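job 3f2a | input accepted
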Amino acid sequence: MADGAVSVLRDGGDAVLRRERVAIHYPYAHSGAAFDLRPYAIRRVFRIYPPRVVAVIVTLIAEQVALPLAHLPPSTWGKTVATIAMAQNYSAPPGQMAGNPSLWSLPVEMELYAAYPLLLWIWRRAGTSRMLMPGGLCQSCPPPHMAQS
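job 3f2a | predicted structure (149 res):
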């Protein structure tokens, strides 16, 4: 049963990231609209970062109240600062806040937002037909941490 739950969570995370890729690209897909990096970046940062800070604050409060009742330590301040900075997936040691491990996905989403302008530029230069093969290959290969063992 635990393996099934992990599989559903993996698939759910992948579905969210796929939805985000479509949402990012939709306005530029067929219109050929000019891409302006500054407003794009500002929209992406304000879409993600303020709600993330609120989520971290709520998580801190919940950890201070609930985790002592279970005789568990709250997240360290270092882990909290890394989470606010969206570096918790990469800082040593990597890991999530004890009270909200789902915060891992937002730094990954920001990475996709950061990579999108380059990918759009390549797609517009190479054309759709040349992008189908590499795009299909990328979609069919799960990230190493999500591969079934």
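job 3f2a | The longest helix spans residues 37-69.
job 3f2a | closed
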